[in-house]
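Dear Dr. V.,

Thank you for agreeing to look over these. As mentioned in my earlier message, I'm a first-year student in the group and I'm still getting used to reading structure tokens, so any feedback on how I've presented them would be very welcome. I ran two proteins. I've put each sequence directly above its structure. The first is here:
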Amino acid sequence: MKNNFKLQSAILIIGIMLIFYLPAFAQKKESELINSYWLTNRILIVGYGEMQMDMVAAVNTEKGVVIIDSGMSPSLTAKHRSIIEKEFGRSDFKYVINTHHHNDHTNGNQVFKDAVIIAHENAVKRMQDENVEDEITAYVKQIRERNERRNQVLDTLEQESELYKKLRDRIYVSGKMCDDYETVYHLTLPTLTFTNTLTLNMGDLNIELVYFGPGFHSDNDIIVCIPGEKIVFTGDLLLAKDQYHRVKSNSDIESWIACLGKIVKSKNEIKSIVAYHVGILPGTVLSNFYDSLKAMRNEQLQKKSAVDSLRAMISILNLQDAVNKFEDQFLKNRNEEYFIWEGDLLSLAKEYEDTEKYDEAIMILKMGEKIFPNSTRVLYGQARIFTKEGENHLAIEAYKKMLSIDPTNYYYVEMIFQLKNIE
């Protein structure tokens, strides 16, 4: 009897210890972290986690339900579908729209095999290229190893912080994705593609799909407009920070402007933008993006590229002298006849990096830091090269600077933790 009492007491103590010492995300049920909210009386957003790490949008129309992006985990998306069916009181899914080919927007396609899956024509090949069995196996191994490290990082964070919640949700969703890759996942390609624009007449409203153009994020990004609801979905085109590093002198800026012009110049007001991985943004963000790209294009037409001038200097001087001359001409005495774009400087540094001329690449990036002091991309370039060279303490300093600019980016915390452990 005494032995039984001791055993029961031991089990109780172990149980209490588990409650207190297991990570907080393990204490919450999956169902508690799957949430939904109405964006309008027709549009439902369903996602996993407090920070919406995995998100599916559903539009209730006369001709059927339309899904915009299908998430990264088929098993989670199946739960999202059940919520949508319950909220809408129907299960007739007409279309699934993939805003681009990346797996966190397309892996859940298989959950909607009863629907027509739509994407830009370039998306199909990209999805096929990224679904090679050996590559998926290697990718899953990499994510699982990374999640082990992330769990260690999680233990060092304040549980109520945004950083903690983001990382917790990312660990869970990416872990579910890996589980699915090994068990239930199968590639489900778009069955309807288009080149430039496509309009879906859904009876009581139209859904307009517009190809953004290549070179900004992928070669198959589309913007989804629902004029009747005053809502636009931008996939991964709009970021909270640093999106203009994607613009380079050889970019197809006119295509981007033309796409945005079709949306911004229409008579339809844009109330909200759904930007995946960012959240719900005001409609003015899209018009500001359009205006900024137009201003950059006008600058390009009216002025000369300072980075092209730097390239010319490098061809006749050694790099250090060329950089010194460039800084005198364009930093100390800003020459208004030229424009300097971050994307062009990053491209030049990457050329040096790709040929293992790391000192030269760092020299360009250090100059870029002076010109663009709030850029995490310039600092990331430095951190990447310092890591390759084994200069981990310098890489850590670069990541710390990035974290001061973007305090809720868990990747920077993760890399600082990893590099410190290597040291």
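The second protein is here, in the same arrangement:
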Amino acid sequence: MQVQINPTFYQSFGGLNFIEEDIKRINFDSLVEETIGRRSLLAQYSYGDLLKNIFFSRLIGGDVLDDLNVLKGQLQDHPHLKIASPDTIEYAFQELARPTRTEATTTGKEHSINEHKGFNILLTKLCKQTGLLRRGEKYMMDYDGHIVDNTKEDNAFTYKSTEGYYPVVCSINKLPVYIQNRNGNTPESYNQKKIIADAIQQCTDEAITVNQFRADACCYEKDTLEYLEYNHITYYIRAEQNENLRIALEDENEWEPAMLNHCKIEVCSIEEELFGQKKPRRIIAFRKKLNDGQTTIFDRNGYRYSAVVTSDNHATPIEVIETYNQRGRDGEHHFKELDEDFCWNKLPFNSFGLNTIYLYATAVAYILFGYIKQKYAAILDFVDNSMRLKNFILHFVTLTAKWIKSGRQRILKIFTTKNYMPVFET
């Protein structure tokens, strides 16, 4: 095999040039400045520049901050795009970091909490500005916590006996609209009514209507249910298996056969007074016959029981169960993408506050990725909206390109057999 070396520079990830133009069209830099503030006039990079740097480093497959040096080399001929160093990112995150507050419960247990109000507003506004969430449409909000395992000095033990943080996320259509970072020993149920209320109010301020809510048993609390009912938000929340509910389900005779995920189950709808109140609430329960002989303390009479409390009085029992079960796709699946594609599982700093800002920055990148995918999937036959990051890099971002001068113009020259024309014609 004969090899001939041509020392001319070409970009390997030329698709970034198109993505940068489309991010510019949504006035991203202005939105960032409006929500989280402006850096010093002497600063070379704005917060918008640095958030785009984080996003672009993920779009070349980078998973640590040092990969920004690779990104800088790849875009060295770009006429105006600025790529910062990892140290600059850290300095800017120090400017943005908020003090961690410690809250003590009546039992003396301490909870460490860190959040950034401006970033939470940015998440919601960005979802709206990109068109991923639209004014006037009605949405389901999911609430869930996610353990971010790490070995940082300021972490804490989680209920899974691992060490890490335990942020809670309110999301709509897999899009994070509100994040609060907590240490690993803080359960997702802690102070959840206030978080839910703040997240819903934040969406309301942007004319994004939340009319449905879904969560696991962490939100099975009287105050939360009353808040949702007062605001006419239909909820689907997993019910805790307490003794009163177990007795009610064992005594129930009107079980109906149904199919769920190709499995035979039995369902019923009952009215139960919860939390010592006289107000009955609808509970949809289902049970599955145990054939393997393995039982838990929640199993009775050869059945495994599960239940969902809901304010939806019109849906059938199986419709309520299927709506709740969609949490696995809409309310939890994005954690896998945030961990693996946007590096929540590789936090770069040894500070709880700085890592909180990193969680927000990568959540912004995740939303931008959703926007770019949706836009290009509509006009390109080699991009699909269901693509994960690695697949998108392979099919779109990986593109040989070079900026050239022609007269007084800078022109991007690309080398490909794929039809990228719809991207730069729009």
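From my reading of the second output: The CA atoms of residues 139 and 210 lie 5 Å apart. The mean pLDDT is 91. Does that match how you would interpret it?

Kind regards,
E.
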